[in-house]
Amino acid sequence: MTGLLEIRGARRSFATPEGGRIAALDGVDLDVGANEFVTLLGPSGCGKTTLLRSISGFEALDAGVIRLDGRDIGALPPFRRPVNTVFQSYALFGHMSVARNVGYALEVGGVARAERERAVAEALDKVGLAGFGARRPSQLSGGQRQRVALARAIIGRPRILLLDEPLSALDRNLRQQMQLELKTLQHNLGIAFVFVTHDQEEALTMSDRIVVMRAGRIEQQGSPRDIFRHPRTRFVAEFIGETNLFDVTVDRIEGEVAIGRTAEGLELRLPGAGLTVGRRATAVLRPADFRLAEAGLPVTITRSVYLGQDLNLFAAPAPGGPEIRVTARDAADAPEVGARVHLAYDAAAVHLLEGA
Amino acid sequence: MARRRDRLVLAALLTPVTLFLGVFFLVPLLTIAVFSFLTPGLYGGVEWAFYHWNYGRIFGWADGIMEVFEPVYLRILGRSLSFAAVTVLLCLILCYPVAFWVSRLPERWRLVFLFLITLPFFSSLIVRLYAWLLILKPSGLLNEMLLGIGLIGAPLEILYTPTAVVLGMVYVMIPFMFLPLFAAVDNLDRSLIEASYDLGATRFQTFRKVILPQTLPGIVGGSVIVFIPSVGNFIVPDVLGGAKGLMAGNLVEQQFLSARNWPFGAALSMLIMSVVLIVLVTFVTRLRPKEG
Amino acid sequence: MRNPLGWLLLTLFSLLFFAFIYAPLAVIIGYSFNANPINMMIWDGFTLDWYRGLFGFADRTADPNSRALYVESTDQLIAALKNSLIVAAVTTSVSTVLGTATAIALARYRFRLRGFYRGFLLLPMMMPDIVLGIGLLIFFVTLGMKLSLLTIIIGHCTFLTSYVFIIVQARIAGIDPALEEASADLGASEWVTLRKVLLPQLAPGIVGGALLAFVISMDDLVITYFIAGTDSTTLPVFIFGMIRRGVKPEINAIATLLILASVLIAALGLWLRSRKIDK
Questions:
Q1: Structural domain count, chain A
Q2: Chain A partners of C191 at a C-beta cutoff of 8 Å?
Q3: CB burial class (10 A; 0-12, 13-18, 19+) of residue C246?
Q4: Domain end marker among A239, A274, A304
Q5: Angle at C70 between CA C67 and CA C72, to 5 degrees
Q6: CB of C258 within 8 A of CB of B127?
Q7: C184: nearest CA partner in chain A
Q8: Which residues in C lie closer than 8 A to residue A169 (C-beta atoms)?
Q9: Which residue on chain C is closest to A156 by alpha carbon?
Q10: What is the pTM of this model?
C-alpha cells in the first residue's frame, strides 16, 4: 500500500451549546492508499464527517497533520486541495444546467470551452447520463442527481474522492444498485475513495477497508470480513450486523473446546485456545451461525419475523430469559412460535472479544 | 488552515457596514443624547455648556426664569402613548379576523388578497393620508354623503380631532399588523384545532386555549411593529390632527423647524427613543417566541 | 365543522376591510378627473386639465380662464421627482451592497459578535423616523455639512440597509451551505464562489430587497424632511408642502400617478417573486 493520504494525531473539538467542549476528533491516525476504497463507519456524532471535512478543508484541525502525496495540505483552503467531494445533499447548483454543474471545476479552473464540453460529455457518459447535459437539476430524479454530483466531482481527476453519505437519500433498490456502480466506477477510475456512512451494510458491500469510529476515535479498522468476523470490541460487534453477545465465565476445558457459562446458567462451547478456567470472556455469535438441529442448545421459539426468504427467530433457552437471534430459511418445516427446538453451532466459529 | 483567510473575508464583508452605521447611525443617536444636555442659544444655536433644564421643563424642575415647567409636554407624551396603543388595538381587531379569512381561502384567492394587502404598502404614505383629508373635511366626501342621505343635519367635525389621527394611523399601519398576523395564522396547525374539538372543547375554549397561544407570536410581533412607529409619528397628526391631535413627534418637529430650540427638541426625542427601546428590550427579552 | 353563518359574517367583515383600504385611493383617482375647480367634492364633468397642468401643457397666460393655476411650478415638481429618483437609485445600490454583505457574513460565519450584529442591524429600522431624522440633522449641522442630496442619501442608507438585510437574510437561510462548499471543493476561490454560486442563488432575495429599498426611499418623508436642503426637495416632501398649503386638484393628479406607479412596482415585485429561479 503506497501512502497517498496520511493523517496523524488529528484533533478537533467543538463548543457545545451548554458551554462545554466536545471532541469530534480525539487523536485520529489514518492512512489511505492509492486506489483504495476506505469507508468511515460509525453512528452520528462519532467524528466521521468531521474527519472527512478536514480532508476536504472545510474543518481546520486543532492539532495534527494531514499529508497528501507527502505534502502537508493542512493550511490549504478547500479550493487548493486536489480532492473533491460528493455531498450528502448533492449540492447541485440549481441555477445551472447539468452540463455546467458537471463542468464547474473546469470552468473555474480556466479550461477552454471546447475541451470542457468534451470532458463533460465523457463524465456524463461514465455515470450513464449521456444526453442529459441541457437539463436542470430540478428536472432529474434523485438517482440522476446523485450521478450528476458524482460526475461533477470526478471530472477534475481528484487524487481522492470524498463521499459524504451520498446514498442516504435514495430508496433501498436504487441504493443497492448505486453501491455496485460506485465500486465499479472506483475500479475503472483508479482513484481512492473515502466514503462516510452510518449504514454497515453499505460499508460491507463496497469497501476495501472499513474504519469504525466511535466518539472521535478509531475503534477498529480492517477488511469487511475481518471487521464482521473478528470485531475487537463489543461496540464494533453490535454496530456491524445483528449479533448475539454472551458474557461467559470459562467453566471447564474439554480438549480443543472450552465450556463457558453465562450468568443465566447457559453453557456455550468456545474455541479453547488460550483460555483458562475461571476466565471471563464475551462470545460473539451471528444469527446465521446457528442451525436448527436435532441436538444442541434446547430453546423455545418466542417470536418469528418473516423476512421473505429468511425468518428472523427469537429463541429463549429459559422462559423469560434473554433471547437468542437466529436466522433460518423459511420452509414448510420452519418452527412455529412456541416450538421446542435445538440450536447447533460450530465451536471453532465462535469469536471472543478481547479483554471483555 | 483557512481560518485566517475566513477572518479576512469576514472583515471585508463587515467593515463597510460597521463603519457606515457606526458613523451615520450610532454617532447621530449619541449626538441627540449630547444635545439634550446642552444650553439652547438665544438665536437658535447651542452653547456647549451642560444644562439639565431641558428635561426640567418636561418633568417639573425648571428654574422658572429661563425655562418654565409645562405639564403640557408630559400630557402630549402620554397622549402619544395612548394613541399608539389604541392604534395597535384597532389594527389587531381589524386584521385578526381578516387574516383568518384570507388563510382559509382557496390558493388563488389567497394570493390575490395578499397582494391587495401589500399594495398599499407600496403606495405613497402621504398620498394615502391626503385621501383621508379629502374624505374627512367638513365639506368632504363623508359629510356630503351623510348629509345627502339625511343621516346628519350639520357636517361632522372629524378632521383635526384625535379620532382623525387614530383613524389615519390605523389606516397606514394595517399592512404592518396584517403580515405578521397572517404568517402566524397561516402556520397554525389545523390538526390541533380539530384535536381540541375532538377532545370536547367548545369554540371559545378552542380559541382561547389553542388558537390564541399559537398565534401569539404574530400578535406580539405585529403589535411591536405597529406601536413603535406610531409613538413617534408626526406626519399623521400634522395632516389630520389639529391642536387636540398633537403628538410628541409634532413637538420635536416644532423645536427643530420653528421654535429652533434644538436641545429641548433633542430632550423630547430622547423620551421617544427611550419608550421605543423599553418596548424593544421587553420584546426581545420577554415576549419573543423562543427560537429553535 | 365550519359554521356557514359565521363564515358569511367573516367574509362580509373582510370585504368591508378591503373596501376600507381601497376606498380612499378610489376617491383620489375619481377626483383627479373632476372638472370642478372650486369644490372637488361636487362632480362637474370629466377633465384632464389637472394632468395637463402638472406637465405644464395648460397655458396660463393665453387662456385667462384656464383652471390650471395651482401647481406652483411644473419645474419644481419635475426637479423633486428627479431628486427622488437620484436618491432612490443611489440609496438602493449602496444599501443593497451593505445589507447583502452583512446578511452573508452573519449567515455563513460564526463569530463572537454575531448576536450583537443581528440586533444592531435591526435598530435603524426600528428607530422612529423622527429620532433618526433629527439625529442626522444635528450630526450634519454640527459637522458643518451642507444639507443636500448627499445628506439625504446617507440618511436613507442607514435604515434601508436594515430592510435589505432582513430580506436577503430570509433568502440565504433557505440556501444549502453545501452549495458554496461544493463550489470551493471544485476549485473556486471565495470571490468566484460568490459570483457564480451565491449571488445567483440569492438573486430573488437581493432583487426583492432592492425593490423594497427603492420604494421606501422614494416614499420616505420624515427623515428626508429634516435633512433635505432647500434645493434638494424630494417628491414626498414637495407633496407634503403642497398639502400643507391647502387641498388643490393638481394634488389628486400627482397622487393618482403615484398610485399607478406603486401598482406597477408591486406587480413587478410579485412577478419577480413568482418566477421560480431555483427548484
A1: 2
A2: none
A3: exposed
A4: A239
A5: 140
A6: yes
A7: A79
A8: none
A9: C186
A10: 0.85
Verify whether the Cβ–Cβ distance C128 to B126 is below 8 Å: no
Strand partners, B44: none
Identify whether the C-beta of residue A273 lies closer than 8 Å to the C-beta of residue A289.
no
Q: How far apart are CA A49 and CA A82, in angstroms?
A: 19
Please indicate whether, in this complex, the C-beta atoms of C181 and A104 are within 8 angstroms of each other.
no
**pLDDT at site A286:** 92
The C-alpha atoms of residue B153 and residue A2 are separated, in whole angstroms, by 103
C240·B126 Cβ contact <8 A: yes
Question: Residue C275 has what pLDDT?
Answer: 65
Tell me the ipTM for this assembly.
0.89
At position A311, the amino acid (one-letter code) is L
State whether A83 and A214 are in the same domain: yes
Domain final residue pick, A220, A239, A258? A239
Which triple of cell numbers denotes residue B231? 409613538
User: C: neighbours with 3+ CB pairs under 8 Å?
Assistant: A, B
Asked if C186 contacts A108 with a C-beta cutoff of 8 angstroms, the reply is: yes
pLDDT tens digits, one per residue of A194-212: 999 999 989 999 999 999 9
Indicate whether A175 and A319 sit together in one domain.
Answer: no
Provide the 3-class DSSP secondary structure of residue B50: strand
* Of A353, A301, A356, A294, residue with least CA distance to A325: A301
* Cell numbers at A291, concatenated: 442451525
The verdict on a CB contact (< 8 Å) between C178 and A88 is yes
Up-side HSE of residue C194: CA atoms within 13 Å toward CB?
A: 11
Cα B202–Cα B203–Cα B209 angle in degrees, nearest 5? 85
- Which residue of chain C has the CA closest to A105? C186
Rounded CA separation C107/C170 (Å): 10
Positive/negative CA dihedral, A106, A108, A112, A114: positive
What span, in angstroms and rounded, lies between the C-alpha atoms of A236 and A228?
Answer: 8
| Closest in C178, C192, C196 to A89, CB measured | C178
* Model pLDDT, residue C279: 37
Domains and CATH numbers, chain C: 75-274 (1.10.3720.10)
Tally of domains within chain B: 1
| Contact between residue B50 and residue B197 where contact means Cβ atoms under 8 Å apart | no
Residues A189 and A336 in one domain: no
What are C199-203's contacts with CB under 8 Å, separation 24+?
A: C200/A93, C200/A95, C200/C277, C201/A93, C201/A94, C201/A95, C201/C175, C201/C277, C201/C278, C202/C100, C202/C104, C202/C168, C202/C171, C202/C172, C202/C175, C203/A95, C203/C277
Helix, strand, or coil (residue B132): helix
Neighbours of chain A (3+ CB pairs under 8 A): B, C
A128 shares a domain with A162:
yes
- Interface residue A145 vs chain C (CB under 8 A): no
Does the distance separating the beta carbons of C128 and B273 come in below 8 Å? yes
Whether A110 and A218 map to the same domain: the answer is: yes
The pLDDT value recorded for residue B289 is: 54
Task: Name the residue range of residue A343's domain.
Answer: 244-353
Does residue A202 sit in the same domain as residue A249? no
For residue C277, the model assigns a pLDDT of 44
Query: Residue B148 is part of which domain span?
Result: 74-287
